[in-house]
């Protein structure tokens, strides 16, 4: 039977609602042993009349209530990065009434950030993200005290910056910072909420090995960073802007649960979100008894050199690129010489085709990195010409350079800084990304 609009009314799949209700009615241990943790924060004193009005929709939720709201008021939360994940996390933590919010961020707002970093606006381009975020928070909730750490979090300042916070929310985008945050949080006994995003996929978890016995840390889940070049950053691989809202708000939700003691936090669980399939899955994460940090015989007993640990490029790529890298200015001269017939070479763009639609170095051909990895590219390389490779930043081209040199093209080179540097330094008329 059709509805008045001609569209069949939605009917749940037969039996589905009953299954869901049955699942919800199961005792908690059927869904895994619940990890309950006491609230991280003691309640503040009485709320003011303004606060009661502002937070009234929280106050009538039994799991939050007056006491939960007072805990939020007393809470000190540090958010690392006011970028894709930090933006929604900061906005919702501020709106929820977290009393003190720290923001640690060194970068400035770029036009390409605005597709997802919704705490910043058009007029903030070029301004420090931490300051822009502070101003947005003041607009949303002037009752929140914002502490700005306008700096890059590193080994030298991490303990000072973390000091005094009840909880950390990690919204950063690089492995070196993530391992440093994990280790420093463990040494200082501060739980933290982690999130990560890439294209249409997101992950989130809560790491609290000092709070809950047998709870894992980030190193239990990921003992080592991925091989350099294996996992592209969002700048290299892209990210669906709205994905940040999904994952950043999960992080804010977990933070609120931990601060107030409501519900069951994602401790020992990994939330995996697939936006293309619109699927959320939860996996158990166990503590690794061999974990280098929180295991039985730890080898990491202090902060380490995280840049070396995570290595921007592999040892082979670094070796191949060591004496075979040209700057974009040198490349421009080379292209002029090729134009006048003084030299010959083939300039190869190793990025993906969709990246090449955004910008390119003129006079280049496309052979994506994947074809270097599976060997197909080698069949297309001219034997008599020098091979010159570029990508977006120089990481993927260095990796391909190692393959090309290994195949006998000893005079092959790559372009340091890639098309990003070309657009910045040579041809600003093309868009950057
Ligand atoms: N060590 C650090 N200290 C402070 N902030 C950091 C640190 N590492 C990363 N960040 C910040 O975390 C944020 C992560 O945001 P996001 O993942 O959206 O990337 P982005 O760097 O803004 O964008 P893109 O990589 O596309 O240029 C960035 O604003 C970045 O400056």
UniProtKB/TrEMBL annotation:
Ranges of residues in domain Rhodanese: 341-431
Entries under InterPro entries matching the protein: Rhodanese-like_dom, Rhodanese-like_dom_sf, ThiF/MoeB/HesA, ThiF_NAD_FAD-bd, Ubiquitin-activating_enz
Keywords assigned: ATP-binding, Membrane, Multifunctional enzyme, Nucleotide-binding, Nucleotidyltransferase, Transferase, Transmembrane, Transmembrane helix
Entry membrane topology: Single-pass membrane protein
GO cellular component: cytosol; membrane
Main localization category: membrane
Entry superkingdom: Bacteria
PROSITE patterns linked to this entry: RHODANESE_3
Entry keyword annotation includes Nucleotidyltransferase: yes
Spans traversing the lipid bilayer: none
MF (Gene Ontology): ATP binding; nucleotidyltransferase activity; sulfotransferase activity; thiosulfate-cyanide sulfurtransferase activity; ubiquitin-like modifier activating enzyme activity
Locations listed in the record: Membrane
Family as reported in the entry's similarity comment: In the N-terminal section; belongs to the HesA/MoeB/ThiF family.
Name this polypeptide is given: Probable adenylyltransferase/sulfurtransferase MoeZ
Organism in which the protein naturally occurs: Nocardioides jishulii
Gene: moeZ
């Amino acid at each position: 039977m059709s509805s008045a609009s001609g569209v069949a009314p939605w009917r749940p799949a037969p039996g589905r609602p009953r299954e869901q209700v049955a699942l919800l009615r199961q005792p908690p241990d059927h869904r895994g042993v619940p990890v309950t943790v006491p609230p991280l924060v003691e309640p503040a004193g009485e709320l003011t009349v303004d606060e009661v009005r502002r937070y009234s929709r929280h106050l009538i939720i039994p799991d939050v209530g007056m006491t939960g709201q007072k805990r939020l008021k007393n809470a000190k939360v540090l958010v690392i990065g006011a970028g894709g994940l930090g933006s929604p996390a900061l906005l919702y933590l501020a709106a929820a009434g977290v009393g003190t919010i720290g923001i640690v961020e060194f970068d400035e707002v770029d036009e390409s950030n605005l597709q997802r970093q919704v705490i910043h606006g058009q007029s903030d381009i070029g301004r420090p993200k931490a300051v822009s975020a502070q101003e947005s928070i003041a607009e949303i909730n002037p009752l929140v005290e914002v502490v700005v750490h306008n700096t890059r979090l590193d080994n030298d300042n991490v303990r000072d910056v973390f000091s005094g916070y009840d909880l950390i929310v990690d919204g950063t985008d690089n492995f070196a910072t993530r391992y440093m945050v994990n280790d420093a949080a463990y040494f200082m006994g501060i739980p933290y909420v982690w999130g990560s995003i890439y294209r249409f996929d997101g992950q989130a978890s809560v790491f609290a090995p000092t709070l809950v016995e047998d709870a894992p840390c980030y190193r239990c889940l990921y003992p080592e960073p991925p091989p350099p070049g294996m996992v592209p950053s969002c700048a290299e691989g892209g990210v669906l802007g709205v994905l940040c809202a999904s994952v950043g708000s999960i992080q804010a939700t977990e933070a609120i649960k931990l601060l107030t003691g409501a519900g069951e936090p994602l401790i020992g669980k990994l939330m995996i979100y697939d936006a293309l399939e619109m699927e959320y899955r939860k996996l158990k994460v166990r503590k690794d008894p061999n974990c280098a940090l929180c295991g039985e015989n730890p080898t990491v007993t202090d902060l380490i050199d995280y840049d070396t640990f995570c290595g921007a490029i592999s040892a082979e790529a670094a070796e191949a690129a060591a004496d075979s890298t040209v700057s974009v200015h040198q490349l421009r001269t080379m292209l002029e010489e090729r134009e006048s017939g003084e030299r010959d070479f083939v300039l190869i763009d190793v990025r993906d085709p969709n990246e090449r639609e955004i910008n390119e170095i003129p006079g280049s051909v496309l052979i994506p990195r994947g074809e270097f990895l599976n060997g197909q590219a080698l069949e297309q390389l001219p034997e008599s010409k020098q091979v010159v490779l570029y990508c977006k930043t120089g990481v993927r081209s260095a990796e391909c350079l190692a393959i090309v040199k290994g195949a006998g093209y000893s005079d092959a080179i790559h372009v340091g800084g890639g098309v990003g540097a070309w657009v910045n330094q040579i041809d600003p008329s093309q868009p950057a990304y």
